[in-house]
Amino acid sequence: MLHGLFHIYRLGIIVNTVTVLLLAFILSVTGLFVFIWSLRWRLFDPHPNAAKTIFSEGEVGQVDEPSATPQQLQALQDEMGHQAPLDAAGQRTLSQELAERIQADRSSALVAFLFLSCSVAWLVVGSIAGLISSYKLHSPDFLVNDAWLTFGRMRTLHLNIIAYGWAPMAAFGIAVWMLPRLLKTKLMGGRFAILGGMLWNAGLIAGLGSIAVGISDGMEWLEMPWQVDLLLVAGGALAALPLVFTLQNRRVEHLYVSIWYMGAALFWFPVLFLVGNMPAIHIGVEQATMNWWYGHNVLGLFYTPMALAAVYYFLPKIIGKPIVSYNLSLLGFWGLAFFYGQVGGHHLIGGPVPGWMITLSIVQSMMMIIPVLAFSINQHLTLSGHFRSLLHSPTLRFIVLGGMMYTVSSVQGSFQALRSINTVAHFTHFTVAHAHIGLYGFFTLVMFGAIYYVMPRVLAWEWPYPKLISWHFWLVLIGFAVYAIGLSIGGWLQGLYMLDVSRPFMDSVNVTIPYLQSRTVGGALMTLGHLVFAFHFIAMALRHGRRVGPALFHEDKVGVQAAGAQSL
Amino acid sequence: MNSEYKLLIGAMVTLALATSALVVVPHLQVSQVQPPEGLEPYTSAELRGRQQYIAQGCVYCHSQQPRSQAQAPDFQRGWGRASVAGDYYYDKPHLLGTMRTGPDLLNIGARQPSVDWQLGHLYQPRAYTPGSNMPAYPYLFETKDKAEEGDTVVNLPPGYAPEGKVVVAKPEAMDLVSYLLALDRTYPITPDYGVVRD
User: Fold this and answer.
1) Min CA distance, A141 vs chain B (Å)?
2) Is B133 in contact with A137 (Cβ distance < 8 A)?
3) Is residue A154 one of the residues assigned to a domain?
4) Residue A114's domain is classified under what CATH number?
5) Does residue A563 fall inside a structural domain?
6) Residue A226 and residue A233: Cα distance in Å, rounded?
7) CB A337 to CB B14 under 8 A?
8) For residue B5, which residues of chain A lie inside 8 Å, CB to CB?
9) Could you write out the DSSP letters of every residue in A263-313?
10) Burial of A82 (0-12, 13-18, 19+ CB in 10 A)
11) Of A30, A61, A266, A275, which residue is most buried, by most CB within 10 angstroms?
12) CA B66, CA B85: separation in Å to the nearest integer?
């Protein structure tokens, strides 16, 4: 009897293997069909003018940098070369289109301002939580008397504040500002976004409170109790409504590549969040595969495309030059959409989960090199010959450096997924450094740049103290370099020591201590940079400094923010 | 591209593929896994302790997934044989972890079965492991002038208890320790058992 049961069970395993192989086959064939279908429908649209849709008539060649001083702006224009002046007809079209763009900017001003303000507040709180966590890791008897201050909670608060506070608030604030410009219409349904933002923040505060008192769903990235997650789901859905409404009212034929990234990301995220937080469905180690499907896709299918959308808009806009290869940007999009979703399994290499899934994730991690290179080559070619522009544009510095960090962190991630390298790097601080190169070096720097570009348009006000932008840049750059380089070395040594059976485990702890200390130093510099940034942001919102100068196109328009509020 | 619908359909198809590969098919496969002989369900005290493990965030520094001997010396370090999917049959949520700031804990109950050691180590890790960077958890304990009936007094190495006081474990600490002692997957996995692991 028992033997018979066992036989049936083993048969089950064999059938299972066949099923898995069959599914893998179907998966590949489907992928192929999607690719053919995308060619058939010209998703790789070869229209050369598509890259120029973000420019008005005669605007190509014209630099645009709202955070620059007049001198910087002049130098930037000199660097990029001067265009022949437009004829009278061209001039008329241009001023007509610029007037429409001002309307577009006004319609999004209030919503963008609210979201970006929240993002800056969360950034400061999140940095402090991160700094405390970092300090605790080399001084473990610091702040041990209160449960909510223990490392396991403070570190989790840091992650959740950044992942669900700073990052989505900044990404959404920038997206909602870019939308009307890219679709050449007014923002529709901004009031839903505001309501959604309020629900989201309320949910986040409740979730953070839960973690602080020790109520947690227990999975990394998914700690907030699912009951609280309902608020975030409702808030996120409301906040995405303007995308739908504004798309329906668009006045452009072609959807620029930034819209692809943003549109897809804003629909991907709710699916991820919903499936990930669904209670009572996931079982045994499948919870772990789901956990890393979610954890990696929040980065790959939400933050990454949101930041790429920003780079693809702001980079060409600032230097007045369309991206060189539009087709490459589309290849990058579909490559990211297809490969990135399947890489999460590389977090479980060597673990008690199905081996075929791990192999699939490793393969797709390597395949990610394709979309990443598509982006990197594009950024490089677009800037090629004009790298001096980075000297003159405070915004561009953040954005281009962020773009480079995307290449670094992604290529690093691809190789880190290889079994040989993963065996050392897995379970160590090297992974933490890698995560920060992605979410900080890439995403956060790009968002800083985008905020510097956007805010003068949102408030119709200049950044009051241009020097502070430099302070911010250099503080976070130096701080981050100390953080990432030190922790990568420390983490790698930790991994090597852990694999060396002749060394006691404690050697792998001791070797990291100096690097953990250097991480605290780097983190402190970054936090200081964020305080400078937050101070500058508040000073601007409180109307220190002056109204936008002659360098900006809507210099004489008054009360942009008030008008924005009315048009909601 | 000019149509938002094609964009969204394309985007949803790619996500659906990823979801089936990383969530749906693993679910089908894991749903066939049976608990190995020798694995017991957690008792209610152990489950309460498991909640403490989650609440204090132990998972952020401790994995529960020893690797195979072919890959890493986890077994030689006493962390146990390579674990298989069935070892986690009763784990909800999973606590595999991705970090080893401290050692793997899947078999800590077998490696350190002493309640005294576990309690004292939670109260002050450096009393047992010099150089450890694990936080101390004094808030899981009470210090009293003298123990009352029913109290579990923590036997600390000399010099680590507050002068003239006794350290008593709170129920949370007792629960946590009962969970840690339950972490024991040293039973053998026979070749007949359908092994699911990387």
Assistant:
1) 6
2) yes
3) yes
4) 1.20.210.10
5) no
6) 10
7) yes
8) none
9) HHHHHHHHHHHHHHH-TT---TTHHHHHHHHHHHHHIIIIIHHHHHHHHHH
10) exposed
11) A266
12) 12
Domain extent, residue A298, equals 39-82+91-558
pTM: 0.91
3-state secondary structure at position B41: coil
Q: Which residues contact A73 (CB under 8 A, 6 or more apart)?
A: A63, A65, A392, A551
Residue A21 domain-assigned (yes or no): no
Residue type, A36: I
Are the Cβ atoms of A264 and B11 closer than 8 angstroms? Answer: yes
pLDDT in tens, chain A (568 residues): 445 444 444 444 555 677 777 877 788 788 777 777 766 665 555 456 788 888 888 888 889 999 998 899 999 999 999 888 888 888 888 888 888 899 999 999 999 999 999 999 999 999 999 999 999 999 999 999 999 999 999 999 999 999 999 999 999 999 999 999 999 999 999 999 999 999 999 999 999 999 999 999 999 999 999 999 999 999 998 998 999 999 999 988 889 999 999 999 999 999 999 999 988 899 999 999 999 999 999 999 999 999 999 999 999 999 999 998 888 888 899 999 999 999 999 999 999 999 999 999 999 999 999 999 999 999 999 998 899 999 999 999 999 999 999 999 999 999 999 999 999 999 999 999 999 999 999 999 999 999 999 999 999 999 999 999 999 999 999 999 999 999 999 999 999 999 999 999 999 999 999 999 999 999 999 999 999 999 999 999 998 877 765 344 443 333 333 333 344 4
Nearest to A499 among B18, B72, B136 (CB): B72
Structurally, how many domains does chain A consist of? 1
ipTM: 0.95
Hey, which residues 123-142 in chain B have their CB within 8 Å of chain A? 125-126, 129, 131-139
Chain B residues lying within 8 Å of A220, measured CB to CB: 59-60, 98
Residue A236 within any structural domain of the chain: yes
CA distance linking residue A261 with residue A258, whole number of Å: 5
| B47–A contact, CB cutoff 8 A | no
* Region of residue A483 (left: phi > 0; alpha: psi -120 to 50; beta: else): alpha
Contact B57 A267 (CB under 8 A): no
